[in-house]
Design goal:
mainly beta, seven-stranded mixed β-sheet, four-stranded antiparallel β-sheet, 11 strands
């Protein structure tokens, strides 16, 4: 397994969760990593992405100010801290590696390696 997502669970609205993505790739430091989510009956949507270097992460408008993405290159790990969770955040969350090194794309088709997903359920 090259990307493994974990940390999902069930929380009440307003609560927090921290997702982790362990990446077992020697080239981890060279590529941006993104988080996506997919709710039942919907398409996979971009949540956040962190560039390979010290650049600024990017976020979907729906999570700005509530979610924070970060990476630890020494541990080959990317985290997604999710605060003030809402029922509409309920979805399976996936981490993925961008095929483009110099930017943080939002289109799922520009990511070539995917983790298995972790379920986040937010109850009202």
């Amino acid at each position: 397994v090259q990307l493994q997502a974990s940390g999902g669970g069930t929380v009440h609205a307003g609560g927090s969760l921290r997702l982790s993505c362990a990446v077992s790739l020697r080239t981890f430091n060279s590529y941006p990593i993104g988080w996506f989510r997919q709710a039942p009956g919907t398409e996979r949507e971009f949540v956040a992405a962190v560039p390979r270097g010290s650049g600024r992460p990017s976020y979907a408008d729906s999570v700005k100010g509530r979610f924070t993405i970060s990476r630890d290159n020494a541990k080959n790990m990317v985290s997604l801290q999710m605060n003030s969770l809402k029922p509409e955040d309920t979805a399976v969350y996936y981490c993925a590696r961008s095929r483009i090194q110099h930017t943080t794309p939002t289109a799922p088709g520009l990511y070539d390696l995917w983790g298995q997903g972790t379920l986040v359920t937010v109850s009202s």
